[in-house]
Amino acid sequence: MKLSGYLCVTTFLIIGTHSNGYAQIPNRQFDEGAFDSTQYSQYQNHKKIPNEIKPQVLIALSFYPELSDTKIIFRYRKRKTPLASRPRITSTFRKKENRTYVITISKKSNAKLTPILFPNLPLNAQIGVLGHELGHITEYKNKNTWQLLGLYLRLLNSENVNEFEFNTDHTTIAHGLGYQLYDWSQYVRKVLNISEWRGASDTNHSKKVDYMKQRYMNPLTVQSHIRSNDIYENIR
Q1: How many structural domains does the chain have?
Q2: Which of 36, 64, 118, 149 is the most buried (most CB within 10 A)?
Q3: Does 85 fall in a domain?
Q4: CB neighbours of residue 54 within 10 Å
Q5: What are the helix (H) ranges across the chain?
Q6: Containing structural domain, residue 106
Q7: 41-58 pLDDT, tens per residue?
Q8: In a domain, 1, yes or no
């Protein structure tokens, strides 16, 4: 989705700390319109962001104020996976406060995944999937070197990947981006014509198979978590 560099929100957002402990009040829908990057200047510190996605990135970052001083590089690469986040390899062995993290956004993949590449997503879904990747970084940030290495080893097991990604969706909802995550979850399943999506590694899925365990929350699960979270109470 191409943007002119301007966005607006249909619900007024308060910059500052809300009672849920995060910086923003949940918002159902972000739309194109007037976007003042100066309102988000506090979230640009130590970030390297391509200009064409700066509005989406800054909006997502505003829901993660604990990452305001974290070094994050947003970059484009040709990758099979639409988005991925990780510490820089050398950062793994540094102190937590000195690490740099990388969120890689793929502009080109195989034909199957092309419809869900970041540029092809609706705006709300773009913000939702960015929120998911930032959720990963909050987990990496709280681990020391040995804990990170342990996590890498655990993620060699697909069952652990299921738990890891599902819990990150929960983190995204808890930070106030539940509606955006819902739009991403719904869009992916619609354009791929599947009831469950287990990520780019799932190249042989069958449309007739429903996986027993959700790797990424399906739309109904996202809705359920939104309904059970008090921060969305006045937005319903």
Answers
A1: 1
A2: 64
A3: yes
A4: 19
A5: 54-62, 123-141, 145-154, 158-172, 178-192, 219-227
A6: 7-232
A7: 889 999 999 999 999 999
A8: no
